């Protein structure tokens, strides 16, 4: 009897394994059916949303042809908002275009506008952007995220007065330094901390990344890392002083999102949308004193690097005729395609 039990045991185990395998196949089959059902539902919802957009477009008399629907359009653009660089003007253009060009715009609002994300929030954000199909194609804007940022040389003075007087975008909002009437020149002359370059004109950290050294003001390592990232990790980096050219190049490169952006900017409705109140330009003496700072020198070197790179990109993207800029037509084509197709 003992021998019989020993001989029967392997057969029972084999049957158990087979039963488990069949159960797994059934489960996988059900999962596949659920995925297919979800995909059909998402397509139905997407078509419904598009129909609503078309209806609103016709109601408001848009008049322009809407871009064609592309199945599974997973394009995502992330705009790195560096403070006081015309970022509000640019994002409002995206908000004006999103209904007509059929994409979503999402503002990434970090606690206290902290430009550094915790490691767990970085994982959450990547997971959200990857899996949130209902928001694709999408345009995300917020601090410390790469693809298409703007930088500005005028940020130092502008931000100083912004903290005291605000701007014309939300004039009723009380600012952190409201009531302080000291001019920027007076602050620099007295050696005040509020006008120190490390407090106001740091743009390198926004391009350097999440390494601790990136936030050490005046770091040569951070500067070189920011330069590397600007060239290798960003689609395009513009400068506020040449905002129209930046928008024109984006429209040429990414018409799926920015078709009509140049005309919208030139119409004046969104150009220079946000202006700092009570801003007084600094004197030559103030500028000369600031330029002695090592932090200013490194930040200015980065600005000059970004400007040179932008001008290089622009030179190969547009041409000038009679004082007007025009986007260059496609300059490549395919030939010698083998094997031949009958």
Automatic annotation (TrEMBL):
<keyword id="KW-0812">Transmembrane</keyword>
<dbReference type="InterPro" id="IPR007734">
    <property type="entry name" value="Heparan_SO4_2-O-STrfase"/>
</dbReference>
<keyword id="KW-0735">Signal-anchor</keyword>
<protein>
    <recommendedName>
        <fullName>Heparan sulfate 2-O-sulfotransferase 1</fullName>
    </recommendedName>
</protein>
<dbReference type="InterPro" id="IPR027417">
    <property type="entry name" value="P-loop_NTPase"/>
</dbReference>
<keyword id="KW-0472">Membrane</keyword>
<keyword id="KW-0808">Transferase</keyword>
<keyword id="KW-1133">Transmembrane helix</keyword>
<keyword id="KW-0175">Coiled coil</keyword>
<dbReference type="Pfam" id="PF03567">
    <property type="entry name" value="Sulfotransfer_2"/>
</dbReference>
<keyword id="KW-0333">Golgi apparatus</keyword>
<dbReference type="InterPro" id="IPR005331">
    <property type="entry name" value="Sulfotransferase"/>
</dbReference>
<feature type="coiled-coil region">
    <location>
        <begin position="24"/>
        <end position="54"/>
    </location>
</feature>
<dbReference type="GO" id="GO:0000139">
    <property type="term" value="C:Golgi membrane"/>
</dbReference>
<keyword id="KW-1015">Disulfide bond</keyword>
<dbReference type="GO" id="GO:0004394">
    <property type="term" value="F:heparan sulfate 2-sulfotransferase activity"/>
</dbReference>
<comment type="similarity">
    <text>Belongs to the sulfotransferase 3 family.</text>
</comment>
<keyword id="KW-0325">Glycoprotein</keyword>
């Amino acid at each position: 009897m003992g021998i019989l039990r020993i001989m029967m045991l392997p057969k029972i185990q084999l049957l158990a394994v087979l039963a488990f395998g069949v159960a797994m196949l059934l489960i996988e089959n059900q999962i596949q059916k659920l995925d297919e059902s979800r995909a059909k539902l998402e397509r139905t919802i997407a078509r419904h949303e598009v129909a609503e957009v078309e209806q609103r477009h016709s109601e408001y008399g848009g008049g322009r042809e809407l871009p064609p629907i592309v199945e599974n359009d997973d394009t995502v653009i992330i705009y790195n908002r560096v403070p006081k660089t015309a970022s509000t003007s640019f994002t409002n253009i995206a908000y004006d275009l999103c209904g007509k060009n059929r994409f979503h715009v999402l503002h990434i609002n970090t606690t206290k506008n902290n430009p550094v994300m915790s490691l767990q929030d970085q994982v959450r954000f990547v997971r959200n952007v990857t899996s949130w199909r209902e928001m694709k194609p999408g345009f995300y804007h917020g601090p410390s995220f790469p693809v298409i940022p703007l930088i500005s040389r005028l940020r130092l003075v502008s931000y100083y007065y912004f903290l005291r007087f605000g701007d014309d975008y939300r004039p009723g909002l009380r600012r952190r330094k409201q009531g302080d009437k000291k001019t920027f020149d007076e602050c620099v002359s007295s050696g005040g901390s509020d006008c120190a370059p490390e407090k106001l004109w740091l743009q390198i950290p926004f391009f350097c990344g999440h390494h601790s050294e990136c936030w050490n003001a005046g770091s040569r390592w951070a500067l070189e890392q920011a330069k590397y990232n600007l060239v290798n990790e960003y689609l395009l980096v513009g400068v506020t002083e040449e905002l129209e050219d930046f928008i024109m190049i984006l429209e040429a490169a990414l018409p799926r999102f920015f078709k009509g952006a140049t005309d919208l900017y030139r119409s004046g409705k969104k150009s220079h949308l946000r202006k700092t109140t009570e801003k007084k330009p600094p004197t030559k003496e103030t500028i000369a004193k600031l330029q002695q700072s090592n932090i200013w020198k490194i930040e200015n070197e980065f600005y000059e690097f970004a400007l040179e790179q932008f001008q290089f990109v622009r030179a190969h993207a547009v041409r000038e005729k009679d004082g007007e800029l025009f986007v260059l037509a496609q300059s490549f084509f395919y030939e010698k395609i083998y094997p031949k197709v009958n």
